[in-house]
């Protein structure tokens, strides 16, 4: 399997995980299945959609590749069938979510660079790809978005994205860069949650 | 009058009705006329604008055909002059609103297909065209959006859109397909309101 | 210095001022520096971004000219270092903010016209350029957006934009048109605040 294929498959996996997390967030708020499906969908595609609009890649990604819709349908189905079980899998979901944001960050960077934009913009768009779906999910489920709360969520994507680009300057193999970036993001999130790292608020 | 012209005129009519509904929603919240006009405008064009952005049809529709702005101005004027009277016309407004979402669904489907996208995406974009303006209206007027509450609103558009496409497979004349789809959506909404149909919430 | 250069430099100045105002709004809400930076960024680029998406100018403006990012970084830095001092400079900030919305209005109009759209659409897009960043700032900081409250904010942009176009019909020199429009907007805002002008709410 080539790196391209690997990234594509894991991208689909990230879409699945985000759809599940959107469904679970919605079902906690006693929505009906239709509303919950809408939120699962928006959580899964929100970040990539905003990125595509800003850089001008239209029709947006999930419109031109049906596999994304299938992944979202699968995520909704799994959320519906295994809701109780999945909610217990907190650590597994946290792990998948971290892998998801890591890969969405990298994909967002690569796509933005392919449009001839600068690395700074690419890191910003990578982060947007990774976190904006979650922001919409939290907003629609009437919670203060995660990135405006204590956890170092977006920061992990931003610094992970910079790591990915810096490693590229040293000609590190792309597979290795992807793995190191994802490991970095997972590690930073675990450590920050464990030690309750957070920025101080502005005085 | 050709089918094209008919659809165009009824699209303008839908824009008018949505502008009125936005104005009425805003005026209940004691906004000033400027804020209410903004909400009327957003209600009328919100759905089509999101659709156009996602499929990449820019400048968005209402920018390149002045008649849409005239319809919105007319809706605001009617809302201003006949507020009390229109609020009593609940059933008439419900009927117009149903015709409006039916036609917006069909127009959204046709436009999306003309961009070479799949029927599944087209039905989704048809629904977005029909319901997103109302979602923005409810959000801006600080109410929980209608589609996240009990009424079978978006479902009517989704299934109506599928009906429209399926009838097309059987070579049904397009005028007949439009009429049947709109009748279906009106009937489903009336029946669902009358019998208080709703999805159960997720347990 | 040519008019082009002048407008460009003042546009950068407007970006700086909006970034500061976003930071100050966020810091009142006890956000962490990351969240406050995001809000400063969105305040500064929000209006121009929505305008660019609607007219189809992508990648959006701040992605293709790094100076905008530098201005925003500068605004965040100034907000961080001189928060207490800047909050006392209410009148100066009000003046800069008025100059900012005036120039954003004019720039939005010129850019929209250059896409072959009508003057009516251009004035609307000018106003969107000027006010939408502030709407997002207020929404994210959980306040009712300024334009939905009493102050005649958006109206100043709308009428100022019309003034700018009308003066153009009389072949007034563009430098003079810019200065007159900005003076008009500043004057209208000062007078409307002083005499507590506001639209009556709809009865």
UniProtKB/TrEMBL annotation, chains A, B, C:
Which residues are listed as membrane-spanning? Answer: 6-26, 38-56, 68-86, 115-140, 152-172, 178-197
Instruction: Give the family this protein belongs to, as stated in its UniProt record.
Output: Belongs to the UPF0126 family.
Q: InterPro entries, alphabetically?
A: Gly_transporter
Offer a single GO CC term for the protein.
Answer: plasma membrane
The name this protein carries in UniProt is: Glycine transporter domain-containing protein
Q: Which Pfam families match?
A: Gly_transporter
Q: Which domain of life is it from?
A: Bacteria
Q: Which UniProt keywords apply?
A: Cell membrane, Membrane, Transmembrane, Transmembrane helix
Has keyword Amino-acid biosynthesis?
no
Q: Residues in domain Glycine transporter?
A: 9-83, 95-167
Query: Its membrane topology, per UniProt?
Result: Multi-pass membrane protein
Where does the record place it? Cell membrane
């Amino acid at each position: 399997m080539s790196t391209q294929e690997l990234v594509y498959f894991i991208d689909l996996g990230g879409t699945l995980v985000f759809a599940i997390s959107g469904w679970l967030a919605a079902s906690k708020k006693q929505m009906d299945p239709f509303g919950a499906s809408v939120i699962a969908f928006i959580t899964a595609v929100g970040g990539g959609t905003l990125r595509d609009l800003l850089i001008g890649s239209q029709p947006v990604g999930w419109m031109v590749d049906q596999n994304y819709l299938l992944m979202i349908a699968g995520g909704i189905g799994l959320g519906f069938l295994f809701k109780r079980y999945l909610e217990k899998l907190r650590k597994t979901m946290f792990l998948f979510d971290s892998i998801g944001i890591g890969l969405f960050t990298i994909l967002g960077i690569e796509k933005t660079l392919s449009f001839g934009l600068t690395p700074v913009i690419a890191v910003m768009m990578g982060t947007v790809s990774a976190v904006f779906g979650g922001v919409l999910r939290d907003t629609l489920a009437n919670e203060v978005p995660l990135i405006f709360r204590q956890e170092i969520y977006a920061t992990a994507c931003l610094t992970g994205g910079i790591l990915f680009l810096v490693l590229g300057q040293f000609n590190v193999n792309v597979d290795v860069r992807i793995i190191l970036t994802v490991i970095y993001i997972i590690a930073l999130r675990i450590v920050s949650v464990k030690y309750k790292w957070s920025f101080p608020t502005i005085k």
